[in-house]
Design goal:
This protein has 387 residues and is α+β, with helices and mostly antiparallel strands. It has helices at 68-81, 94-98, 114-122, 127-138, 141-154, 177-190, 216-219, 259-276, 370-386, and strands at 4-7, 40-45, 51-55, 89-91, 111-113, 202-205, 208-211, 223-231, 235-244, 247-256, 277-283, 290-293, 301-305, 310-315, 322-329, 341-349, 352-361. The strands form five sheets. It has a six-stranded antiparallel β-sheet with strand order 1-15-16-17-13-12, with no helix packed on it. Strands 3-2-10-9-8 form a five-stranded antiparallel β-sheet, with helices on both faces. Strands 4-5 form a two-stranded antiparallel sheet. Strand 16 and strand 17 (352-361) form a beta hairpin. Helix 1 runs parallel beside helix 6 and helix 4 (127-138) packs across helix 5.
Length: 387
């Protein structure tokens, strides 16, 4: 009685085909993916989260300074919560000042604006700046690392463990291409007001001007982030993002042989994915897709739709093969709460499910009067005997 029923599905933003065995035209042919000289790599659609190309995406490797994406993410998270301010003056400890590796060149005992430290982390890959903000937010770098791991869990970074805020070599300090892509996606989507920092080519502090180490910012106008990394153990790494037309991609390459190699291998991934894949928006969030009967409610019906916009990533030329179906709960009883799930939307491509998302109530429906509820209960009882 409570099982879903197939409902009439609103038209997709692409005309579905009824051809059971579609044939590809020459325009739809896709070559084999490029050979990538990296120990691990991945390309993800930033909107849908779909992985288009990957190799060893769940294998753990040392992330080097890609770690600082989580450091900057937490700074941006705390800023959004109002717990800290960009104008906060951060006291530079001896530990921060003495931290080795790439540096912003802050001075021990001075106070530096938080926004300057955030830029120093993202653009200059400052280890000293990373330790300084870690101490400012959590009291110590070790406490901040615990916070990093909590955020990693919330973001679904299942194979990541942080020991510090910098990415300097440490036992068990590991991540994966998939997890780093998830982190990059969160930075882009959750804090768009701060994302332009990741595309800045230079930052000057203490009269020292340093360039962003992401070479693609100079080579490709569509690339606008995110972070480079390098240690002897990790090799040369790069998490990049690019937007062309209405499609944004995130790429990760780990363990390449040089700065030039990480840039070139990233270019290969982005060029292939942009050329042969498309992001296709199907439905807007909040748009009614179906109207269902509410038993025992003040109103007779409830509008059902999606909490957020629904898009899919498909190979070029195959959007016409997309089909969607709504599975709506057979019985919906009052009270109905806006946002509560009452079915599923399933999108298929050539018979294979590519996305499945909840179908939710777009409005509240309160309980009706006592007599109406009693009558509807009687009707539902007899309907259950029938079906």
């Amino acid at each position: 009685m409570a099982g879903p029923v197939q409902a009439e599905t609103p038209t997709l933003n692409a005309t579905p085909t009824l051809n059971a065995t579609p044939t590809l035209s020459p325009a739809e042919l896709i070559p084999a993916s490029p050979q990538i000289a990296a120990t691990s790599y991945l390309v993800m659609d930033a909107e849908t989260g779909e992985i288009l190309l990957s190799d060893k995406e769940d294998e753990q490797f040392a992330p080097a300074s890609l770690t600082k994406m989580m450091t900057s993410y937490i700074v941006e998270y705390e800023l959004a919560k109002g717990n800290i301010s960009k104008d906060d003056l951060v006291l530079i400890s001896e530990k921060a000042w003495r931290t080795e590796g790439s540096r912003m060149f802050v001075r021990e005992g001075t106070q530096v604006k938080l926004i300057d430290l955030l830029q120093g982390i993202i653009i200059q890959s400052g280890n000293d700046a990373s330790v300084a903000v870690a101490e400012h937010i959590a009291g110590s770098e070790s406490a901040f690392a615990d916070l990093m791991n909590q955020h990693a869990g919330l973001l679904g970074m299942k194979n990541t463990y942080f020991r510090n805020a910098t990415g300097l070599p440490a036992d068990q300090h590991m991540s994966t291409a998939r997890d780093l892509a998830l982190l990059a996606r969160a930075i882009i989507r959750q804090f768009p007001e701060n994302y332009p920092i990741y595309s800045e080519k230079y930052f000057t502090y203490n009269e020292i001007r340093q360039p962003n180490r992401n070479r693609l910012l100079w080579r490709d106008d569509s690339v606008d982030g995110l972070k480079t990394g390098h240690t002897e153990e990790a090799g040369y790494c790069l998490v990049a993002s690019a937007k062309r037309d209405d499609m944004r991609l995130i790429s990760v390459v780990l363990g390449t042989s040089s700065e030039e190699a990480r840039a070139q291998e990233t270019q290969k991934l982005l060029a292939y994915a942009f050329r042969y894949y498309r992001t296709h928006k199907l439905y807007d969030g909040g748009t009614p897709l179906n109207t269902a009967t509410v038993w025992g409610g003040q109103g007779g019906d409830v509008r059902l739709g999606l909490a957020e916009s629904l898009a899919v990533t498909v190979p070029r030329g195959q959007t016409d093969q997309l089909e969607a179906a709504l599975d709506v709960d057979r019985v919906i009883e009052a009270p109905v709460v806006q946002g509560q799930e009452y079915g599923r939307v399933r999108v298929t491509l050539n018979g294979e499910t590519v996305r499945e998302v909840p179908l939710v109530a777009l409005e509240d429906v309160a309980e009706g009067g006592l007599l109406k509820r009693i009558w509807h209960s009687i009707v539902l009882f007899f309907l259950s005997l029938i079906g």
